[in-house]
Amino acid sequence: MPTPDIARLRARATQHHTPCGDGSIVWHVWGPASALPPLLLLHGGSGSWTHWLRNIDALVDAGRQVWVPDLPGFGDSALPTGGSDADALPVPLEAGLQQLLGTCAVDVVGFSFGGMVGGFIAEAYPARVARLVLVGAPALGMVERNTVRLKAWRHLPDPAAQALRHQHNLAALMLQDPQAIDAETLALHTANVLRDRIPGRRLSYTDVLSRALQQVRCPVWAIYGRQDALYLGQLDALAAALQAAPTFQSLQLLDQAGHWVQYEQAAAFNTALLAVLA
């Protein structure tokens, strides 16, 4: 993996494998078990566990045992069977949780695509999820396919040309401040998108998460970047869409943060998340 922080966290993690498709889901675990529920972090599309790189230490230091899988079809995990979008992931993830944690309820924090997955898990397996926190999640009936225009890169033979496209896409979608795209951030993102094997995800452009939240029984919170490219000029509508969920608690908007809010404003995000989890 590309950065010293990633290498350090990988060295500290315990790794587990559970069946998925023709291979396995790779789970990374930090911290000892405690009286608090395990904390399950679900990364975004074209990502891996490294989407949470700047959050794991603070959560473990606060006494949480942190579980972060590479979602099926991303990172080091195998493709799921039965589909190629967020709705294909709850079954193998729940089977893995059953194998690793039995019937133990977990607190779930889902970023972007992972927010959809977390919502689907909470809907399908209500006893599994004690609390759900959505971070920059789409599929609330507001994000259209061309909301953010990304540049294609897979057809380019030159890695340097690809890197320019990755940098553009980070600035367009993920981060509010282009100056935040340093060499390590670019390397992390590049390593993740190279291992994305679930292209053309369509559910993000629907209202499937809104509909799932109507059935979710656990309390639901949300933390979004105020400058999230998916919701520019639509923050009031975002709040209304979330508040329509029967168990929704609150939305917190973090300043000077784009879509990848937990990375760009890690300290503020960690404080906000720990307050919700308390």
TrEMBL record:
PANTHER family: HYDROLASE, PUTATIVE (AFU_ORTHOLOGUE AFUA_2G14860)-RELATED, MONOACYLGLYCEROL LIPASE
Annotated protein name in UniProt: Pimeloyl-ACP methyl ester carboxylesterase
Gene3D superfamilies (UniProt xref): alpha/beta hydrolase
One Pfam family in the UniProt entry: Abhydrolase_6
Organism: Rhodoferax ferrireducens
Domain AB hydrolase-1, residue spans: 39-270
Domain of life: Bacteria
Coiled-coil region(s): none
